[in-house]
Design brief:
Layout: H1 2-31, E1 62-68, E2 71-76, E3 78-82, E4 85-92, E5 99-105, E6 112-115, E7 124-129, E8 138-146, E9 153-163
Parallel strand pairs: 3-9
Antiparallel strand pairs: 1-2, 2-4, 3-4, 4-7, 5-6, 5-8, 8-9
Length: 165
């Protein structure tokens, strides 16, 4: 019987050591920091202003769009291009729950002509500088939305606009 006791105690000791090692491994793996690339938050656009709707030209065809619950934008549906700047009058609604920015793209989305910085609620960006001259009669405006506290993406939307002749 004593030999059986020794075998049982030996097996229990091995199992106990295994459990202790498993617990140590699990606890250490949870405490290791995940290494992720350094996040760089988009900058706010220094040219954004609070603009009165009366200051927007009639020929800009300024329209309001509800993108989804939580954010709405107003912008020109016909954009004018002058001296490598596109007049867009992009406005983030005062009641938006997101910070917005936009990018101006070719119709196929392959060429980026320029992009804004972040706009807070109630801010308008009259125009942005283009990287190159667009071709054709239309552009795509890609609207990107960000959660204010975390900069997590809240999604994107695209809008087709006409270029004034």
């Amino acid at each position: 019987m004593e030999k059986t006791h020794k075998i049982i105690l030996s097996v229990l000791a091995v199992v106990l050591v295994g459990v202790i090692i498993s617990c140590v491994i699990v606890s250490q793996s949870g405490s290791k920091k995940q290494i992720s690339p350094e996040f760089s938050a988009p900058a706010f656009d220094s040219n954004a202003v609070v603009l009165n709707i009366d200051d927007i030209p009639q020929d800009a065809e300024y329209k309001s769009l509800t993108i989804k619950d939580g954010f709405k934008v107003s912008m020109s549906s016909v954009v004018a291009i002058h001296n490598n700047y596109v007049d867009i009058y992009f406005t983030s609604d005062i009641d938006n729950s997101a910070w917005l920015k936009f990018e101006i793209l070719s119709l196929d989305g392959k060429i980026s002509y320029g992009e804004s910085g972040l706009l807070k609620q109630g801010e308008t960006l009259k125009n942005i500088k283009l990287n190159s001259s667009p071709h054709g009669d239309e552009l795509i405006i890609k609207i990107l939305s960000y959660e204010p506290d975390t900069y997590y993406s809240l999604g994107t939307a695209t809008v087709k606009v006409n270029i004034a002749k």
